[in-house]
Amino acid sequence: MRICAALLAVALSGAVPAPASATVRAAGEPVILVHGWAGSPSAMLALRDAFAAAGHPAYPIDLPGEENVANAQAIAGLVAEVTAATGQPRVHLVAHSMGGLSARYYLKRLGGTPTVRTYVSMGTAQYGYLPACLLGPAEGGQMCPGSDFLRDLNEGDDTPGDVAYATFRSAQENARNVRLDGGACHLVIPGVGHADQPAAPAFVEAALSTAAGRCPGTFVDTPPG
Q1: Which helix (H) or strand (E) holds 77?
Q2: How far apart are CA 214 and CA 122, in angstroms?
Q3: Which end of the chain is less packed: N or C, by CB atoms within 10 Å?
């Protein structure tokens, strides 16, 4: 795994406050940046630089492949390494596309919630992406709606633990596919293609706002329609 370190402090004004349990932040909390399917850490460099400029160490992870459980284990390893190195007990997770599934598996199935302050997904098909059904399970096919992986991941509460959850999507993406139940901040951003989301200023600013304890969109207790 490749680690790109950097240094978040300044948040955006005018955003909706997050729930009270999510508003306490420690200065310099690290950020783990998780790329998407067939991606690389370089896709997350705009986010890394923005979080660095705001004062938080940011670490793009180089995922081992396209299988979410293995990726979640890699995320767990990096979180442990980063918290030990920085002395911070909690991190922020910001993930794009399929990386959001790997990150949520880490939270829900690998016991990651105590070490995560916020979870942000960008363009993640939380309930599946039909074209992925053409792929094998280890090549991204776990994103197929109804796959064993997604049935397990989406059983019960989508948003466990004392974590502030947020899902961002392009207006071009299906609202149902990116939903999370159990209470999450949802934001729709127009005019940005799927692959461009991690570098798009509107997505970057929304991620900064969430990590600073604000919901840049609408906080809902049930999935959007």
Answers
A1: helix 68-86
A2: 16
A3: C
CATH number at residue 131: 3.40.50.1820
pLDDT of 104-149, one tens digit each? 999 999 999 999 999 999 999 999 999 999 999 999 999 999 999 9
CA 84 to chain centre: 21
pLDDT (tens digit per residue) in 70-111: 999 999 999 999 999 999 999 999 999 999 999 999 999 999
Tokens found for residue 153: 């991941």
Residues 6+ apart with CB under 8 A from 166: 118, 119, 120, 121, 184, 185, 186, 187, 206, 210, 215, 216, 217
- List the beta bridge partners of residue 215: 16
Q: Which residues pair with 33 in a beta bridge?
A: 60, 94
Residue showing tokens 């049930």: 222
The b/e string for 71-110 (b: 16+ C-beta within 10 A; e otherwise) is bbbbbbebbeebbeebebebbbbbbbbbbbbbbbbbbbee
**Token pair in block for residue 93:** 């997770």
Does 8 reside within a domain?
Answer: no
Evaluate if pTM is beyond 0.85.
yes
Q: Helix, strand or coil for residue 225?
A: coil
Range of the domain at 71: 16-220
Q: Rounded to whole angstroms, what are the CA distances from 204 to 48, 208, 217?
A: 9, 6, 13
Asked if residue 201 belongs to a domain, the reply is yes
